[in-house]
Structures are given as C-alpha cells and as structure tokens.
Amino acid sequence: MRVGVLYSRIRKDEKLLLDELRERGHEVAKIDVRTERFGLESTTVAVDDLDVVVDRCLATSRSLYATQFIDSYGVPVVNSPETGDVCADKAKNSLALAEADVPTPATEVAFTEEAALEAIESFGYPCVLKPVTGSWGRLMAKIDSRNAAEAILEHKETLGHYEHKVFYVQEFVDKPGRDVRVLAVDGEPIAAMTRSSDHWLTNAAKGGQTASFDLDERATELVERASDAVGGGMLGVDLMEVGVEPEADTAEAGVEANDDGAPDDYTVHEVNHTVEFKSLDAATDVDVPARVVDWLETKAAAAVDGAVTP
Amino acid sequence: MTSDTDTLVAEDPITGEQIDLPADVEVGEIVDSPVTGTELEVISLDPVVLEEAPELEEDWGE
C-alpha cells in the first residue's frame, strides 16, 4: 500500500512506524506539514497516489486542519478529523464519554473566575483544573485550597490564551498511584500498560514508570465503548482504577491488579487521538508497530474495496 | 558525510563539533546533541545538515 505520514517531527514513535511500513514493502510518503499547502480544491501533497494517510502531527492545531483538508480530497485519513476534533478538546472528550455512558470523572466547564471558583468549591478540595487543550500533563493543577484556586484562576485569566479562560474543572480521582494507558484500534486493545508515580500526575511524559498491564473484561469493554464514543481509530485510552486502596495496589510498577487489589471499576478520563506508543512497545511484549501496521493495512484495503465497490 | 557503514557524521549547529549519527537517520528525525543534549532536527541527508529543533509549543502532544 501507499501510505502518507503527516508529521513535523520524527520521534521514536514515527521511526518505529516508518521502519515497520518499509520492512513490509509499503511505499511511504513522508508529508512534512510545515512545508505543504492545503487548498480548497487541491494541495501540494501528492494525495492521489496514496491509499491511506496517517496523522502523526505533534501539534494539535496542525493535526486538526491537515486531516480535515486531506479528508476533503477524498483520501482516507486516520484518525479522522471528527475523532481528532473530539479528542483534542478535553471538554468535548468528556461530553462524548458521558453521552456514551462511559464512566468518566465528574467535570464542569466555566467561563469566568467567579463561576470557576464556584465549580471548584462545589467539587471540594482537592480538585483538578486542566486546560481544554494540551497534553503530557502540562499546565494541570491539583487544587488543594481556596487560596490556591484563586491564585491559579487569576493567573489563567490574566496571562492565558483565550482557551485558558475556558475553565475545565474536574473531580480529583484518588487513583492508586497509577493509571492505565491502552492503545486500541477501532476499539480493539493492542497493548496496555500502567503508568506509576508518587506524583499525582502519572503521565509517562512526566516520568511515570511504565509496566505491562492485563486488561480485565470490564476495562476491555470500556475501551471499546470509549473508542466508539469518539468515532474510533487508533487511540490512546486512559483509565483510572476506582476503589483500589493505595496500600492494596501495587504501588510498585508492574504488579497487576489481582484479587486483593482488583478495582471495583474504572473511569475513563481521556482518549488521545495522536497516540504515542514507544513506551507501550518497550513496556509490553507486544510488537506495537507491527499491530498498528496490521490495522493500517486493513484500513487501506477497506478503502480500496470501498472505492471499487459501488 | 559517512565515517563508516554504521554512522554518519554531521556538524552540531550549536557547538560546531562533528557528531556521529546512526546511518538510518532520516529527514525530520530528532536527535540529541551528544555534547549539549540539545534536540537537533535532521534537515537533509546529502549532505547531513542539522538544525536546532523547534521548541515545545503549547498544543504539542497526543
């Protein structure tokens, strides 16, 4: 197949993907979105030659626009711009999960400092304030007191981009020192890992320790439903275990939940649409790029079938 | 410039020193300067040209 890869930065993740595609003999067209132009009717990208385009843009803004333009030319693109639109915005993400009855942390959005403070007080302390866009745990605030809330809100109101005046306030979930990242393709899990840290932010990008994780039936079901809720695709679904006492868990990375420390349930806090997988590839026995390319091959084949079948 | 079959050699744009890169490095790839730790972007392969990689921006991520 002929695969276009939208990118502006070849990281380890993209390198793994490119290597796998080439090893299988697929033609790869790297598309540096910084050097291309996207018109209403045509583009500088040679899209007519491509069976499928994979969005690996690091910048969310570029990802959203580039996929929308590629889609407008009738070229299959993963993930779809619709999925990207939902996943790129935490408020839309939360709404989609809630509308699909996927358990997700209680969340409120407010547009002024005063209303945001009311939301924070209604949740009680601690609670969490997040930017609606952004990743890797950046600019996330765990708010422990009214004084802290007032200071953070004033800073965001005064210093922030307009998006920082969309105050996304969320209940604090007392997770057992770790959360769970699942890479899934159209709802089917490829690999899962825990991210553990003494810090409340457990993102791998924040230095959280990773370890392979076996999904139970409930987690598997929630991953599929969360994927459906945002439109499917290749996604990073993040879950937190509910009802696990920190002592009973596994604060040690790598220990799976068991009968003693099994969660009562999970809550899905986020679905990511330009998912990184190098950590999953390293933490698990799964050949993640191989599974990703397996899936891309099915997407490309389906697109070709769809094109020739009336 | 190729030093042997396994590595390429390029000039570190920050320090001016010659640094080794894996032979399979490609355009757009990010490599760390072995001297300063600075992230460098591979701009071209023939010849191998490196530039300081763009700084993190607010909308970067997953």
Shape field of chain A: globular
Quaternary state, please? heterodimer
- How big is the Rg of chain B? 12 Å
Structural class of chain A: alpha+beta
> Which chains share the greatest interface?
A-B, 26 and 15 residues
Mean pLDDT of chain A: 92
**In terms of per-residue confidence, which ranges of chain B show pLDDT below 50 for 5 or more consecutive residues?**
none
Helicity level of chain A: 25-40%
CATH superfamily membership of the largest domain in chain A, which one? ATP-grasp fold, B domain
Which topology of the largest domain in chain A does CATH recognise? D-amino Acid Aminotransferase, Chain A, domain 1
The top-level CATH class of chain B is: Mainly Beta
Look at the helices and sheets of chain B and give the structural class. Answer: mainly beta
CATH hierarchy: architecture of chain B: Single Sheet
Whole-number total of structural domains of chain A: 3
Cα distance spanning the termini of chain A: 21 Å
Average predicted confidence as pLDDT of chain B: 90
